[in-house]
TrEMBL record:
The keyword Zinc does not apply. The gene is LOC107791244. Residues 180-253 form the GHMP kinase N-terminal domain. Its EC number is 2.7.4.2. GO terms for cellular component: peroxisome. Pathway: Isoprenoid biosynthesis; isopentenyl diphosphate biosynthesis via mevalonate pathway; isopentenyl diphosphate from (R)-mevalonate: step 2/3. PANTHER family: PHOSPHOMEVALONATE KINASE, PTHR31814. This is phosphomevalonate kinase. The keyword Repeat does not apply. Keywords: ATP-binding, Kinase, Lipid biosynthesis, Lipid metabolism, Nucleotide-binding, Steroid biosynthesis, Steroid metabolism, Transferase. It comes from Nicotiana tabacum (Common tobacco). One of its GO terms (molecular function) is phosphomevalonate kinase activity.
Amino acid sequence: MAVVASAPGKVLMTGGYLVLERPNAGIVLSTNARFYAIVKPLYEEIKPESWAWAWADVKLTSPQMARETMYKLSLKHLKLQAVSSSESRNPFVEHAVEYAIAAAHATFDKDKTDILQKLLLRGLDITILGCNEFYSYRNQIEAHGLPLTPESLASLPPFTSITFNAEDSIGENRKPEVAKTGLGSSAAMTTAVVAALLHYLGVVNLSSLTEDQSHGRKDASNLDIVHVIAQTAHCIAQGKVGSGFDVSSAVYGSQRYVRFSPEVLSSAQNAGMATPLTEVIDDILKAKWDHERTKFSLPPLMALLLGEPGSGGSSTPSMVGAVKRWQKSDPQSSLETWRKLSEGNSALEMHLNTLCKLAERNYNVYECVINACSLLTAEKWPERANEPSQAEIVKELLGAREAMLGIRYYMRKMGEAAGIPIEPESQTHLLDTTMSMEGVLLAGVPGAGGFDAVFAVTLGASSKNVTKAWSSLNVLAMLVTEDPRGVSLEDNDPRAKEITAAVSAIQLQ
């Protein structure tokens, strides 16, 4: 009786840095890159003498990293202790396991607690798998002499082994880093493990989820529990309370997000060894989570494209630190920059929402305009507007572009003032080139910026040409598209699927 749950990676399209502070909103798109967690019992049956046991066995396997860790779980304190291979600890999964089990204890009555105990005595066998899109395979593609194209990426087997970045030239013996693409693998992984465990233990029932329920309709309470436990596990594992947009999109899918007040997690942060974990989790489940999320997805006939420029990733925490220091040292001008950024973010959101409404109102006209503009550079779009209804659509498209250019301008300004490369010069050149291509609506650096990745939003079928152009600019277009779904229960082990999502994605385009 294996339970398989998956959660998506994310792209923060607007709200970089600002989303750290309420009431600033960020627009975050969830993607087709998913993290999977498979939970099943470790033993067929309970041994007769197990009623006296104080520990349960937990096995955590990560096939892509060729890692397996065995733990003992204290049934009294709900804490994990590694009994093997401690050099490869995964704090995100460890906290996810402890907190999910504590959530079961905190919410169950006596009868259910007995069932829970029996379930735990059979041990937990947990496997985690991340889609290839979370990791950078650019070096392997180049090493094999393959072209930098999505087709080369699609030729990799699903859940390919992950390579570690080479050690730095100074020869320091640092822990090797996994080369990532910035899609939020730790948030997606934590969320998938929490969701799979909560469902397996009977705390939530995710099988009844339909598309609508994930956005505040009648059955959101199941997802809300997943959200609270995943947010808590992720923040504690990270050692800091971030904005949480990555976990929120992993749970609920694409959305407009305003962060929760960090105080809701104070009981977890301040819990000493003496405080029972069930009490901590009970507090957190009852706390007033005041984050806001509104349904959001790209307008019809628009595609999200992500490109990997191959200059290595950037460290988000150190960039955030630099921005915070700048805010302290120059409150006047930093406030002004943030105000302008916030205005730009709101404007972009408004134009995209209006485009969704215009598509609903008259799809035929909308489709006709989008397809026409997909073949032209932006300055020629007004030529396609021969009547008021077409002109209205073109006006919103150009408004969205204008807003994006403003956002980029102030992000660069902030980066210069804070002394960090939010939109490095190499990225500026690439983004300007991309925005001048036919059918490109927007281009920018997602999230905190830096060298991680670039994104573009394209109209109609124009993404093929952008992919080709990127390839010639030494940018690898990733097999990532927007998928507004959040956390999901899967029918079976994703490794059993013959046709991979990557291959079908290529045929769709």
